[in-house]
Amino acid sequence: MKYIDLHVHSNVSDGTLTPKEVVEKAVKMNLAAFALTDHDTVMRISEALNAVKEYQNNGIDLELIPGVEISVAYKSKDIHMLGLFLDYQNETLISELQAVVNDRENRNIKMIANLQNAGIDITLEKLVESEGDSIITRAHFAKYLLEHSYVKSREEAFKKYLGEDGPYYVPRKFITPEKGIELIKAAGGIPVLAHPLLYKLPPKELDSLISRLKNAGLVGIETIYSANVDFDESYVRKLANKYDLLITGGSDFHGANKPLIEMGIGKGNLRIPYSILEKLKEYLTNK
């Protein structure tokens, strides 16, 4: 049996491994394929592809699916849309994602000012210095606060300083779900609703949201996921069947930023069969 992982992050967004190191991890975990889905960016997918080619040239069978995880607006919060099998060189996609990144950077500057007013010694330069080319997210803020002893854990950082309900948080401007789906499809990709149960929506509201997204061109829904418990997977499978959506699966691997989640196996019992990838490929062939 061959296994895959269609939701993986590198340090280009809020993971801790470089794209090349993510490829090395995939080989170590004996995966047949994985998708690199960094937040709001397709930067350095080529780096991962080059690393995969080196392994392939040495007889190791590994596939990389170029992807992205786009934050889109839903009421007063954001939801996440995965794009799989993207043309990561698509100019429109790159331009629109850069606009999203620019807005994130403006938000970061405002959050830094709020934290400075609270007596925290933090600047954008210090964050960038420690994170290199990574797109700075709240995960990087949490890392900084922890490393500089303002908090004792990442959880405390979010609860005390970075949470959406806190006094230092600055909301972002998000594109609409319809726009996110449009961008993914225009780049030749498959739009997938990521981890639908993490949004904690009442069942009727979640059903209504999926109906709306389906009408906008949604193709898949992330069904096999690290955070699933009890009957979560079967519940999402029913939604997939109801709206004729393809199922996908992913660990949401972030390296040390989510230490309990391992690539390919999640919290230990995650298994995503290669047959799921075959159905996605079949969709692309027949669309």
From TrEMBL:
InterPro entries: PHP_dom, PHP_domain, Pol/His_phosphatase_N, Pol/histidinol_Pase-like. Residues 4-74 form the Polymerase/histidinol phosphatase N-terminal domain. It comes from the Bacteria. This is Phosphatase. GO terms for molecular function: 5'-3' DNA exonuclease activity; 5'-3' RNA exonuclease activity. It holds the Pfam family PHP.
